[in-house]
Structure of Mannitol-1-phosphate 5-dehydrogenase:
Amino acid sequence: MEAVHFGAGNIGRGFIGSLLHQANYHTTFIDVNAEVIQALNENKQYNVILASENSEKHNVQHVSGINSVTDAASVVEAIKNAAILTTAVGPNILPVIAELIAEGLRERVKSNKQPLNIIACENMIGGSSILKEKVYEHLASDEQASCDALIGFPNAAVDRIVPNQVNDDLLEVSVEPYYEWLVEEIGIKGQTPAIEGITYVQDLTPYIERKLFTVNTGHSAVAYIGHYMGCETIADAMDEPQVQEIIKGALSESGEALIQTYHFDREEHQTYINTIMNRFMNPYISDEVTRVGRGPIRKLGPRDRLIRPASAYMEVTGKKPTYLAKTIAAALQFGNEQDAEAVELQQMIQEDGVEKVLQSVSGLAAGSTLIGAVLEEVDRIGEWRR
Ligand SMILES: NC(=O)C1=CN([C@@H]2O[C@H](COP(=O)(O)OP(=O)(O)OC[C@H]3O[C@@H](n4cnc5c(N)ncnc54)[C@H](O)[C@@H]3O)[C@@H](O)[C@H]2O)C=CC1
Ligand SMILES: O=P(O)(O)OC[C@H]1O[C@](O)(CO)[C@@H](O)[C@@H]1O
């Protein structure tokens, strides 16, 4: 069975590639990183190491790579024959890969009448649906109709912490033992792919919101507050009592919104939060706050991990959030010369001020309660300096 996976990075190799191998797929990774593609074609295997006491090693075999910059024709050929297509490239890259996927589908549906499921494994709500929209922009209406019959775009949520890392072996990747891959069954065309590790759910919304507004809200709180306080890693930040206080408060606020919206059991949700806090403190992982905070414009978006839970908390409780507002205030301070979005955000703040940025980037109404709450925390932020 052939799998095509876009993005041979941390999640691609360390999570999706590993499960595809265990499910007996040959995986063709598509990437723009020539070095990684060359290594995949030369080595034809790589190791995934579990970041835990025993450093358990999983050897992932039956892999190859195609450089989509230099060999688009081979990507089209691979898509024609694939039994599943997955992505882990980052939300901003989905529109970039859409045209090539459209070319592959255009050729595929002419001769291959087997269904194909395309699963975007990105930290975002509705990733596969957005990818479908972008792909369809490149297809004529008759081609779209053929795809409607055969090509599924089920939405998914993926959860596994895979930090940036430099290993002697370029392909080796160290990952936390925990993982969760949820796929919405309703979007599947044909049989559900038999991949151990995927949990199929009828309605993804409660699960992806629970994941994004707990794991990602919490992780970004640690990253932004920690970065503001001068910490380099998530582990350093988790050692700070103020970070602990803010993350607990932020997850209690997002938790309230989730519990009231989706009727999660209060005790079970607290256990979920505790598990996540322990994952952030995994001593076998070294994760930079700059990685976890990367792309602050995306993360300050209206539907993302900071603004959405803060707005939802206000909707269900009628109160203004304190700890999510502190986290948003810290996100607005996230300067990092290596991060194009961080640079752009700081420029926007300099030119227009925080209030305007919260309107344009976060979609908040001028004079809204949340803007007021964040501005109060921006004024107080100096209190957290170490
Ligand atoms: N690393 C993590 O802990 C987690 C990441 N995610 C999500 O997984 C996705 C990928 O994240 P990571 O693996 O951490 O990032 P990464 O940066 O390690 O991997 C992304 C890969 O995509 C490749 N890429 C960039 N442009 C491309 C293009 N046009 N065509 C093909 N490949 C291209 C890059 O070269 C890179 O190899 C993101 O949406 C992220 O939010 C989700 C859960 C956890
Ligand atoms: O990948 P993003 O959306 O930039 O988020 C930062 C990272 O921190 C996490 O929230 C937890 O590891 C990952 O899911 C993610 O890679």
